[in-house]
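Form 7-S
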Amino acid sequence: MPLGTWFRISGAICLSWLFRFLHCLPVTRISIATLLLVLLACTAREASAQQSGDQSGTPIFGSLRLEADLGRSIGQNIYTRNWLPQTVGGLTLATPFHLGELEVGLRYSRFLHDEMLNGFSDFHAVYAWLGWNLPLELGEKTTVLTGLSLGNTYFSYDQARIYTAPGADWSYAFDRSESEISYELSLELHYGLGEGWGLFGGVAYNRTLTYHPLELTLLRAGISRTFDSPSWLQSFLR
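Output:
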């Protein structure tokens, strides 16, 4: 088995253990998860130094893949029952990075509160992230990507919720906007159409580390376009 395949398998095992750790991670320990992710990336970097390049022949930062996707929530929990998630839309930019891919992205979603719940507000949410993907090629045109991303979810409420007490002469209005640390685990299947175009679909599990963690499971599908990175951008990123 080629050396690169061994490293990909080892990386997948490391990611699975990291996923389990992150699932029960309190907010005060998010820095530990970040450190583990950095250590994993450094390990991949040292391993890739033993090879002349990745198996596809594309150098680090040698190409860019722009993705646009739509998604729907497929999970049921107290969060998605109280606020009904609408269709979400996202943009992702990925580039080869040692034995995997480095990516940045934005996703917008709209949540409508259950009409039976008084005092709740509809809100907008934007998840901004930095992530790393581990690719596994199944054929000439088919690739499976497992990924982990860390970022922030920004919330903007239509109305500020006001708290008071019966007969009290005071009230407190929460801010209409807030942001919280989030992470996401993803699994995607990519299929190349030729000339840089491709289709992909997959699932993503997003967890926002509020006092009561907010969990969202998405079914996603989209289109991608891959093109060569300009030389000046490769030099800048390196």
